[in-house]
Design a protein that fits this description.
Elements lengths: L4 E12 L2 E12 L3 E6 L5 H8 L7 E6 L2 E2 L4 H7 E4 L11 H10 L5 H14 L15 H13 L5 E5 L7 H16 L3 E6 L2 H6 L4 E6 L2 E6 L1 H10 L1 E7 L11 E6 L2 E6 L2 H11 L3 E7 L3 H10 L1 H6 L2 H9 L1
Helix pairs in contact: 3-4, 3-5, 8-12
The structure holds adenosine-5'-triphosphate and magnesium ion.
Length: 319
Amino acid sequence: MNTKKAIVVKGLKKYFKKVKAVDGISFEVKYGELFALLGQNGAGKSTTIRVLTNLAVPTDGYIEVAGYDLLKDPTNVRRNIGLVAEKVILYNDLTAMENIKFFSRLYGIKDSISEERAKEFLKLFDIWTFKDMLISKMSTGMRQKVNLARALVPDPKIIFLDEPTLGLDPVSTKHIRDFIVGLREEGRTIVYTTHVLHDVELMNVDEVAIMSEGKIISKGTLKEIKKHFKKAEIVEMETDETLAKDKIKGKILIQEGGYLKVEVEDIGEFLRDVAKLNIQIRSFKTLEPSLEDVYVELSEGSDNNVEKGMRNTLNEEVK
Ligand SMILES: Nc1ncnc2c1ncn2[C@@H]1O[C@H](COP(=O)(O)OP(=O)(O)OP(=O)(O)O)[C@@H](O)[C@H]1O
Ligand SMILES: [Mg+2]
């Protein structure tokens, strides 16, 4: 069986007793795409990755990876994927090179070949000189780089990266980010999780899904998501007197005396309305919504949004 999609997820759920870690998500990733799963701590990103890579059993839902039904044919799925997990998968009592060779053997790769590929990656990540150091002696960043090399040596078609730059310094972060973009250019499919919007922008990912409380609350290309983010602007202003709520066109975020923080759809219209009130304005500034604002806004109505098919609305808006 083969399909054009690298990943198909339908109605995926993963519950831990009372916690609905993943609560009915659906998405597809095309071959050759760099797909970002974005969300705050506890949103359900790692759980999704763990289920898609066969490390956790789903409560419900259909998952297809590399054209294979994950639940029916996990062996073929595993052959086609690589994982850089949140928790580094390496043996502390083995060296970097020993770890890489060990894990490559599980994929049926001969030591001579894995050594050669490991050299390429360890040099690229600037840790070749530490190839014989025990993992237990390494810093977090060094371990993360060995972990990345370990996942890439078997040459997987589809790569899952769960916050691969966690614990890395800014130079290494940039290095790894550029490297991931390079992997996409080689035609590989990448699923990348992060809570940093900036990362997603810098890597110019093909598609983003924003998760909150186990649900996908927004999904689309970066262009679509950004357009959605920019749709509303946040105005922060101080006036001599408290503005009457019914005179303000917009969603009031904070109002304390003369201080007002409001989200407005049309800044021109908002300014014209304020001018009509003939009041003294002490300060005025507009802010772009931060990722946090967007999360808060989206999360507040996440149940409604999903029910109303917010993802579709987002796509339609851009067309
Ligand atoms: N093994 C588990 N047992 C019980 N609850 C779990 C387990 N794993 C995850 N959870 C819960 O599921 C929810 C989602 O966790 P998950 O690790 O998937 O989030 P995340 O988006 O990866 O967050 P982070 O950005 O912090 O890594 C959290 O509420 C978490 O406490
Ligand atoms: Mg996580």
